[in-house]
């Protein structure tokens, strides 16, 4: 008797994983998400973070330059080029960095580097029109910047002293454009109209907003007024809790990976003269990050013990990673689901890499990305061990040692290999579930 062991094909594994990850979505939301994922391999990559984590969680390469308890930190969890962008702080200052921590997780630092560099391969091909050789050079600049920033901090510098060079191209042009074309008044003009009494309400004619039922509105208003204020980090000092809810709307068709999760906008009127009169709060359902499904039973139990719920996990990650955390950051519950609450920044804008002006500008941008990610990892590690905030960058710097070139080669090779895997997965998805687009 001959025994034949049959394994599922990569194609079937990918399609089954995508179907399972999106099984809870409505037919309409699933169709919208799949349509977005069909636009390009990079869009597909952004919508399938769960595939990345399933692929890399036990990858042997993580032990070459990490795999230690001390090489773990808070990760962004969905590191990619378009998760960098402009945002504002509470005093209407503008910054550039990562501002999305929905998938944040505590794990080895290399996972963020791997995902980010794979996204650079896909983005450089799709948007920046760079050759593979120039893309590899850009990745090496990104990694050099990351390592240099770790080494600088290992010598005693504070992560708060790690700054993004806004005065250099191409960020200087981008930030100036954001300053000129965005702000509180323009944000309110985009999302609001006047009601019959001349007061501000959400513009439900917008294809990005939808109405809520009276019962749902009442539930959200109650949670904002009763539950949310107690979760604010510095509610007493900044009086964020002193507001009145004016209107609520459902946010439609936002994001790629998170598309289909419940999301609402609330318009609130601040009672504090030191704060903008009208503030838009972004209320977003938080679920477990994709990495959670890869953990062992023991790791999952420790995760649940560490965080009350996923909105709490998002809150802790945001304050750990961000140099300019949102003063409105908190949470609330609606039924059995938990939601993060934060201000919708009037300066939020992704850097349009399709407008990049050649390799020189792309290389300059990658240098800033490396500094930003290193700063996040350093801050995230310090929050995990405040009694020894330098453990992470000391451990990683020592682990890599004099093998910086070998480290950069391993990461760059992974980026190109995984990007090709994404392209193959994308083609399978298009044939099985997607909506083909011109030129795909």
From TrEMBL:
<dbReference type="InterPro" id="IPR018721">
    <property type="entry name" value="DUF2252"/>
</dbReference>
<dbReference type="Pfam" id="PF10009">
    <property type="entry name" value="DUF2252"/>
</dbReference>
<protein>
    <recommendedName>
        <fullName>DUF2252 domain-containing protein</fullName>
    </recommendedName>
</protein>
């Amino acid at each position: 008797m001959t025994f034949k062991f049959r394994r599922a094909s990569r194609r079937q594994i990918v399609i089954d994983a995508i179907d399972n990850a999106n099984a809870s979505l409505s037919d309409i939301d699933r169709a919208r998400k799949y349509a977005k994922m069909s636009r390009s391999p990079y869009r597909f990559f952004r919508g399938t973070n769960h595939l990345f984590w399933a692929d890399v969680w036990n990858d042997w390469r993580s032990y070459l330059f990490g795999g230690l308890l001390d090489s773990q930190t808070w990760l962004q969890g969905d590191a990619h080029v378009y998760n960098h962008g402009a945002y504002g702080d509470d005093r209407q200052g503008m910054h550039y960095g990562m501002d999305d921590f929905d998938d944040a997780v505590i794990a080895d630092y290399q996972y963020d580097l791997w995902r980010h560099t794979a996204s650079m391969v896909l983005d450089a091909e799709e948007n920046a029109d760079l050759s593979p050789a120039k893309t590899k050079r850009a990745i090496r600049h990104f990694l050099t910047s990351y390592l240099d920033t770790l080494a600088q901090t290992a010598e005693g510098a504070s992560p708060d002293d790690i700054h993004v060079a806004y005065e250099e191209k191409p960020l200087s042009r981008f930030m100036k454009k954001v300053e000129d074309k965005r702000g509180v008044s323009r944000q309110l003009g985009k999302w609001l109209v006047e009601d019959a009494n001349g007061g501000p309400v959400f513009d439900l004619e917008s294809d990005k907003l939808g109405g809520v039922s009276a019962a749902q509105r009442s539930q959200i208003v109650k949670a904002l007024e009763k539950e949310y204020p107690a979760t604010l980090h510095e509610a007493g000092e900044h009086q964020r809790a002193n507001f009145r809810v004016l209107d609520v709307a459902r946010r439609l068709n936002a994001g790629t990976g998170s598309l289909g999760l419940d999301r609402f906008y609330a318009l609130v009127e601040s009672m504090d003269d030191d704060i903008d009169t009208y503030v838009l709060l972004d209320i977003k359902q938080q679920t477990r990050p994709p990495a959670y499904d890869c953990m062992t039973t023991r790791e999952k139990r420790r995760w649940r013990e560490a965080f009350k719920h996923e909105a709490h996990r998002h809150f802790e990650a945001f304050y750990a990673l961000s140099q300019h955390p949102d003063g409105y950051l908190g949470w609330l519950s609606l039924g059995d689901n938990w939601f993060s609450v934060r201000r919708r920044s009037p300066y939020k804008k992704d850097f349009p890499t399709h407008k990049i002006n050649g390799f020189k500008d792309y290389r300059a941008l990658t240098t800033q990305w490396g500094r930003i990610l290193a700063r996040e990892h350093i801050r995230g590690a310090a929050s995990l061990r405040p009694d020894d905030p330098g453990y992470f960058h000391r451990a990683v710097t020592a682990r890599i040692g004099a093998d910086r070139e070998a480290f950069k080669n391993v990461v760059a090779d992974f980026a190109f290999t995984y990007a090709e895997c994404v392209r193959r997965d994308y083609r399978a998805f298009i044939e099985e579930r997607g909506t083909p687009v011109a030129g795909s």
